[in-house]
Amino acid sequence: MQAHTTAIVLAAGQGKRMQAKVHKQYLLIEDKPVLYYSLRAMEDSFMEDIVLVVGKGEEEYCRQEIIEKYHFTKVRAVVEGGKERYHSVAIGLHAISWLCDYVFIHDGARMFVDEQILTRGYENVEKFGACVAGMPSKDTVKLVDEDQFAVNTPPRKLIWAVQTPQIFKADLIENAYAKLMEE
Length: 183
Hints:
Strand content: 25-35%
Helix content: 25-40%
Radius of gyration: 18 Å
Order of helices and strands: EEEHEHEHEHEEEEH
């Protein structure tokens, strides 16, 4: 891999749907927080830099209890996220003060990212300029009308569940977010 790659790991979410007392990225699995596994995958990969976006007031906790404790050396910045996910992505992009070719945006609570997913993403972003990890849907999906009546069932082979990482040429995503934040 010759291009400069940077990962933005988003860990500012509150996990409200889980209704847990602890944010899901800090829940322990085998005595390590979920966020550890996402960061470990990025640290052990071809990624050159990592920006960690965390919730308000969680910066020092993450520095001490995750980055320093587990010796993550590629984390270049820990920044406070925004109100919504797209705000946090914009903040992560703004924190990249160095030139990079590709940006991998990954949710810190998605701990099963691995080298194969990252490598396939890299190969595809080189070809297409943008790509996203996803899985074919096992569920039947219905399209509904304004009255919530099912009107169509798209073929399952056409339905994919999009996940992360979302991978972009750096200038493409930076320009897109600059325009989004303007509007």
